[in-house]
Amino acid sequence: MDTKTDVRLPRLTWAALGLVAALVCGWSVEEASPIQFDPALLGVAAYVAIWIPFLIALFLSFIGCTLSDAISFLGLRFQPLDALWGLGIGCLGRAFDAFLRMVLTGSSGLVQQPTLSALATPVVQTVALGILAPVVIAPVLEEIYFRGLIQRSLATVLEPLGRAPKWSAAVVLTSLAFALVHALLLIGTPNEAMLTGISTFVFALLAGATAAATKRLGGSIAGHIVFNGLGVLLTWPV
């Protein structure tokens, strides 16, 4: 019996539990939104509600391991070439999102907003909620969780399939999970959730393939930063 597979199975279990907990916590915050709370506080709560289950699942997945072992398993490394990988997949993913919306809705969706109430006042809120959270923290944490923990755990479990099939299956399954979480946590119409699910699935395929090909997360993290950063830049309130 493959000992490595036996060791990695609990990591996949923790990863799945983390996803479920993130969905439950995210939906709980959404249910609180009709109540009269400060929009900025709700924005912070939404991010924290999703991030905390991810962080707990990551911690539990590597209990008993050294930090270097965890970093090695996750592929948490960066090389200068990863910046080019990231620029390519980030721009391609954002272009596909705009193209998909143009075809299905007649609009790219990348239009400047007249106002964003959660970002309209203090500079600290603007930086934290409008830039730092979606462009820096979310890409790093989500890539570590999805392309690191989930995708690599799946590849280990699917080892009997062979190198190419196991990574192909791991990339597709991880991308489906990534897209499903983003679609289910979206506050919007079913059509918007569908569009978000499709575009995030395509981006996730690009990020997953990059992580699998390079054997590190640098390119996928850079790509996620570019993908989210372009979205923020092109929809920044006037």
UniProtKB/TrEMBL annotation:
Transmembrane segments: 12-29, 41-63, 84-104, 124-146, 167-187, 193-213
Domain CAAX prenyl protease 2/Lysostaphin resistance protein A-like: start-end pairs: 127-229
UniProt KW Secreted keyword: no
GO MF annotation: an example: endopeptidase activity
Superkingdom of this protein's organism: Bacteria
GO biological process: CAAX-box protein maturation
Protein name as annotated: CAAX prenyl protease 2/Lysostaphin resistance protein A-like domain-containing protein
Alphabetical UniProt keywords: Membrane, Transmembrane, Transmembrane helix
PANTHER family: CAAX AMINO TERMINAL PROTEASE FAMILY PROTEIN, SLR1288 PROTEIN
Organism listed in the record: Sinomonas humi
